[in-house]
Amino acid sequence: MKKSSVGAALRRRLGERFVDGEVVRRALALDASRIPPAAVPLGVVRPRDARDVAAAVRICADHGTAIFPRGGASGLTGGSLVSRPGVVMDFAPLNRILRLSPEDRTVSVQAGVLTGRLHEALERLGFLYPPDPASAAFCTVGGNLSENAGGLRALKYGTTRDYLLAATVVTADGEILRLGSDAHKSVAGYDLLRLLVGSEGTLAIFVDATLRFLPAPKAVATLSAVFADEQAALEAALGLLKEGLLPRALEFVDGVCAGAVGAASGPFLIVEFDGHPAEVRAAAAEARSTLKKRDAVRVSLARAPARREALWEARRRVSTALLKISPTKAAEDVCVPLSQLPALYRALRRIGRACGVETCAYGHVGDGNLHVNLLPRPRRRTDGAVARLMKAALELRGTITGEHGVGVSKKRYLPLETGAAVLSLMRRVKRLFDPRGVLNPGKIF
Amino acid sequence: MKKSSVGAALRRRLGERFVDGEVVRRALALDASRIPPAAVPLGVVRPRDARDVAAAVRICADHGTAIFPRGGASGLTGGSLVSRPGVVMDFAPLNRILRLSPEDRTVSVQAGVLTGRLHEALERLGFLYPPDPASAAFCTVGGNLSENAGGLRALKYGTTRDYLLAATVVTADGEILRLGSDAHKSVAGYDLLRLLVGSEGTLAIFVDATLRFLPAPKAVATLSAVFADEQAALEAALGLLKEGLLPRALEFVDGVCAGAVGAASGPFLIVEFDGHPAEVRAAAAEARSTLKKRDAVRVSLARAPARREALWEARRRVSTALLKISPTKAAEDVCVPLSQLPALYRALRRIGRACGVETCAYGHVGDGNLHVNLLPRPRRRTDGAVARLMKAALELRGTITGEHGVGVSKKRYLPLETGAAVLSLMRRVKRLFDPRGVLNPGKIF
Predict the structure, then answer these.
(1) 3-state helix/strand/coil string of B35-53
(2) So what's the ipTM on this one?
(3) CA of B239, closest CA in chain A: separation in Å?
(4) What pTM was estimated for this model as a whole?
(5) Which three-class secondary structure state does DSSP give residue B408?
(6) Are A337 and B101 inside 8 Å of each other by CB?
(7) What angle (nearest 5°) sits at the alpha carbon of residue A364, between those of residues A204 and A141?
């Protein structure tokens, strides 16, 4: 078949659910990574159901045309970027909550449902869906599955992977498969479902998913603690964990980031507990005492939602504040074993000095996960600093990405982490699932 | 190469770490499934390290000889059974805890470490490794990973999969790979690690693993509640979950099983909470009141370890008591969405009557997981009842196996659950990882 006819074939099959106006095409070439797209897509598919997804994939595959699945496009590594000419599969129309069963503690949603909407629907009924990426207001469940999104509550509750029971997916040859089971546990054959989680849309496309959820905690308490320097803050964070505390969030903001949001007099931690009121009260009191013993300059504790939100406010503004200061900053996402956090932060400072770039970091230190930002003077200099940061994280037995994925921006570093043999096995898995290379090409590898 | 020389080649490379005395060979052909092995193995490899495992796999692969990895051989579906002539890889010698880091909240163990020993090592330091299969005293971490073992605490804490961070594995061509990361989170490339979890030794062999663990709960409370009939007991179990309670264990024992252990006057539930003392106290009180409201005939509550253990005692003895009554019983492991449990139990009774076999069930109803036993009169009649049970579980949107795996005994039912297309994809994954079919052949497919 001729490449020129892919648009016509999609139009024939999908009617107005295939669009190719230039404004739309240009808009959907981009994502939150701000990496320049390599191409403007030929058109955009807006599927109504799994059959539309399958039909579009089949048509694209027959024409050798790339398909770029797109949820909220909130990824920071270019996972939904149009990296060569092809068709965008926009999941915005697939935004229905299909079945919410309090009895089964499961909810079935289409892939385009916003994560924040899922949170709200469950909170209204007294339930909690734990995965909580910072972009919850505009990212989608399908995107979260494709990236294995983490977020603020991963320390206690794990990541998106841990809440997935079953899913409908479309394969690279346009087959609709149901994977997993609606039961809470199943070990019937290979766990293909969890192989697909975090595969960034390169092995198959999530169309809908059945997720489990939990009863909502009855109480939440939040602490904010300011420190004289970063090492003291990081040691205090580790101190909390050593005491056997298990906060649902344990966040760190360094002095540079704190300065950028103009909210605190130095680096700070946010610590949040949830659970039974008595448990939360006891844990918060213990944490306050530990933080003070470990040289916190000031500790604030809040229980009421509005006061808790006030403590979070500075932490939430970090990312956008840094973007304003430096629109071309490199936003990295390294993660190391907990004990290596202070060493990672020291390495970051060293790298900044050596490469002449300003460095700062914040993030989910309870997981060992630092969102490192490198603020360039001449753009090219951050590349060297990023490479050194990746090597430092790996030398500390860590990973190049805790939750953002490989996408486009971390491709060159992936072999440093996996080694050639594991990378080769991953490539063979890719070829098995997508021999023609039509699913989100140019990502991961 | 000639098949006859595989023993000689293994002996040359491994010396006394390859044994082929007849007593050993006959003993290691069997596992806890009590399925008759199809063959006596040619010999047994007792590896000292990953290089031994890799060398033995390479030699076997070169000779086209099957390898049967063996942990505690406690699986109930024949996962470690010798299903054709080949070599057993006995992980008993690889029994060291390599590195236990309270700071990182991670522990690295060789695959042959007993799960119970890992529990003890962590409990001594005030930590909890949640996966708790009933066979913890004699099963191994490597076996747990290969089967994705669940157990009593899966309701609150999940299964073995959820605690794995990284592993060393040996592939079918004898390559040693390190998968995953020592960091608590990583999304660097495909999650090959979790594809291997639950793959029953058919894709690669676990040699060692890095697992995460949690702070131990400060209090535990256990309730036992006896009911007049099974439907009341199951409805009460669901009632607890509907109230928003999250016990760590929620176990059901039906009247037949209760009679077999001679311990209770009817079907009963065991409910166990852990966490902060105040939380546990409140949850136990609420559960007691709910159980009474939902027609429990008698509710007992215990906090002290010895008294808690006394409540568990009857539940723990069910499996062996049933074996004594009926050594040829079929032990099944279906799992359904929570709301479908009462219907599953009714179906079980119907099937028993229709097929003329005695049926009974117990298990992890908090997960929707029932261990169903079919006590045959003429042996052949359980086969029909098992097939009907599998169909009933699938019609209720469930799975043929919640935690025991497919192994040998559930192979014929797997296609009913997955369908032909998913099964074909699983087979292609098998061929990709093990093109010569030497890793634990005859299992799953």
Answers:
(1) CCCCCCCCEEECCCCHHHH
(2) 0.96
(3) 9
(4) 0.97
(5) coil
(6) yes
(7) 30
